[in-house]
Amino acid sequence: MKPLNKQSASQLLERIDNAANGEIRSLTILDATAMQLRLSVQDRNRGYDWIDIIFEIDGISDARLLDDAKLRHVGTGEGISLLFEGDKVGMGIGSYRSIAALGDSVLFIVGNGVKYAEAAFSG
Description:
Shape: globular
Oligomer: single chain
Strand order of the largest sheet: 1-9-4-3-2
Structural class: mainly beta
Number of helices: 2
Strand content: over 45%
Number of strands: 9
């Protein structure tokens, strides 16, 4: 897993087109304050081939989660948002400009840190 900051997150989101029209593969609770969200996305650096990106958020202080049966019905047409404000990071499905606005998302996670890993396409 590689840690993300505001700049590196912006570069990653640009590379994967904010995960627009991607697919949510899984949401895994690692412990009481850490979760992983796995998405299948198209990667510009690989000629738009599909890959999976696993985001891990730790130090979770707020979240709206969905059970696995509902995850596959969540559209990512507007992509995802990954926002940094002070010592908080927020991630949500859709296009948002602030962590407070993530509360309108069908799925969001707010924590203290985020990291990611690339994985083979799980389609």
